[in-house]
Amino acid sequence: MDISIVVPLFNEDESLPHLAEWIDRVMKEHGFSYEVIMVDDGSKDTSWQVIEKLHAHNSCYKGVKFRRNYGKSAALNVGFGVAEGDVVITMDADLQDSPDEVPELYRMIKEDGYDLVSGWKKVRYDSKIAKNIPSKFFNWTTRRMSGIYLHDFNCGLKAYRRDVVKSIEVYGEMHRYIPVIAKWAGFSKIGEKVVQHRKREFGVTKFGMNRFINGYLDLLSIMFMSKFGKQPMHIFGAVGSVSFLFGLISLIVVVIMRFAGRIALTNSVWFYMSMMFVVLGALLFVAGFLGELVCRNSSTRNQYLIEKEVR
Ligand code: UDP
Ligand code: MG
User: Fold this and answer.
1) What would the mean pLDDT of 240-244 be, rounded to a whole number?
2) How far apart are alpha carbons 223 and 93 in whole angstroms?
3) Ligand 1 within 6 A of 46 CB?
4) b/e burial code for range 117-137 (CB count within 10 A of at least 16 → b)
């Protein structure tokens, strides 16, 4: 199978028939073998009935329905698990992403050898204050922190080599950082394509302003995870040792000064400071050890290391 299109959706029943029609048209024009995996993220409207109808008409349409709303990341992750195509393309259900972009994205993965190609909504049709300006700032920060030069990390329209989606796990609200997760998993050929963006015709946006607060917290945890996720002791141990040693040395100095008769121990602010550094250092060490224990028991600690092998 050439292409799997993964569509996460939440209350998009009006858009779905139009989207399906459009995808069909593009796929037929280019003669792709394809599947469309619609992941219904706990919709309260008739989205699921629409999906069932599409499936009855054409078995290329597959559906998964969540029991409740788990979020876009969970929906993408399940779609990735199901996908069988050589190239996996994700697309929003609200008709803001154009299926006309699919053939070129497919070509970039297949012929130009990209692992991942992210869309770039160069011209956006969202409200300026709520989306465009904060998202510029958000993209700039992510670029600086991750070293991946994309303009539009959060674009719903992306294409992946199948290997990539089978090697990564997207959870929480990490869908904004899939390129970062992919790079971390060792897929470094990441490209970008300017894509057309359209106005939302039906329904409403599902993400409010709190996306930006959560977005930054997620970015911090992603960066932390990629640097120290597999060896937490490297950060906690280092900071802990410095703190502990500093505290210990200054404690010794304070005690010597006490016996030299210079100061009264408990009146000295240095005494308390030194104690604090010693205790803090020990606690950081313990945190590091606990982190290592957690990693040791993680089921994914050695997953997806191998790219190729001959035996
Ligand atoms: N979506 C989802 N689960 C959610 C929120 C959104 O599957 O909890 C889907 C939504 O139906 C759409 C896509 O994610 O297909 C992008 O959402 P939206 O269009 O609301 O985001 P925006 O375009 O405003 O950034
Ligand atoms: Mg949208």
Assistant:
1) 97
2) 29
3) no
4) bbbbbeebeeeeeebeeebee
188: CA distance to ligand 2 center in Å? Answer: 27
Q: In the structure encoding, which two tokens stand for residue 154, read together?
A: 């959060």
Residue pLDDT, tens place only, 132-175: 788 888 899 999 988 999 999 999 999 999 999 999 999 888 99
- The answer to whether the CB of 72 is under 6 A from ligand 1 is yes
Environment class of residue 262 by beta-carbon count within 10 Å: exposed (0-12), middle (13-18) or buried (19+)? exposed
pTM of the model: 0.87
**Closest ligand (CA of 73):** 1
Does 3-228 carry CATH code 3.90.1010.10?
A: no
Q: In what order do the strands lie in the sheet with 190-194?
A: 61-65, 34-40, 3-9, 87-90, 158-161, 116-120, 190-194
Kindly tell me if the per-residue pLDDT of 286 is higher than 90: yes
The structural domains of the chain, with segments of one domain joined by +, span 3-228, 233-296
Ligand 1 pocket check for 55: Cβ under 6 Å: no
H-only helix segments in the chain? 15-30, 47-57, 72-82, 102-110, 133-146, 162-167, 178-184, 210-228, 233-259, 269-297
Tell me the one-letter amino acid at 261. G
pLDDT at residue 263 above 80? no
DSSP string, 234-286: HHHHHHHHHHHHHHHHHHHHHHHHHHTTSS-GGG-HHHHHHHHHHHHHHHHHH
